[in-house]
Design a protein that fits this description.
Elements lengths: L6 E4 L2 E5 L2 H10 L8 E3 L6 H13 L5 E3 L3 H8 L23 E2 L1 H7 L5 E5 L3 H5 L15 E2 L6 E2 L2 E5 L2 H10 L7 E5 L4 H13 L5 E4 L2 H5 L18
Parallel strand pairs: 3-4, 5-11, 6-7, 6-10, 10-11
Antiparallel strand pairs: 1-2, 8-9
Helix pairs in contact: 2-7
Amino acid sequence: MADATLRGPLNGVPVQYLPPETLAQLLSRAGVKDSDRVVVYSDKDNVLGATMTAYVLERIGHPNVMVMDGGWSAYKATQPTTQEYPKYTTSKLTARDNQSIRVTLNDVTNLMNRKGVKFVDARPEKAYRGEVKTWMRNGHIPGAISSDWHQLMDPANPHKFKSINEMQQIVQQKKLDKSQDIVLYCGTSREASLEYMVLKHMLGYPKVRLYEGSWTEYSSHPELKVETGAGQLARQ
């Protein structure tokens, strides 16, 4: 299914996640049920669609979700494939509304400048600096560090993660440690969903959450402070 199906406008802000009950209904129509082990993969430049879909399943409390390392291109290089549509029926998928893995805008404003909290911007550095003129306002959350998600992936295959050791070195260079309360964001939380998977599920960081509204929501509030320029880039 297309990952775009899982989001829509909310309170005037575009591309926000649909309510858990709606997400569960959509995924159940695709044949996902409570007892399934779900493996998510994608193709071409859409690895973020895979990690976002995996995050959505965790968001509604599904206990058994994996992302295929290497994606479709790696799979079809060695495994049989088909072009037939799968046969399945609508199934039962329970929505449990896992609130522990995400933060709201109100949470963000309460956590800013709090000791032990680290905001991480997963967008490319030009967007972090405010040089990409995409949003209502451009820049980053004050005090956030820049951590471009691309650097975690194999340059030869954007769906293949670098080794655990390589990713751990990258994260350590950002001065992130497991004692911190880490809040990830990006433009619309797709890029941040990849770093969420890496930090929480691959590297074992215990306190990692996703700001789902991300920069799309934050930048739409003129009363909130915005930082531009190198910011934490200059201090890493």
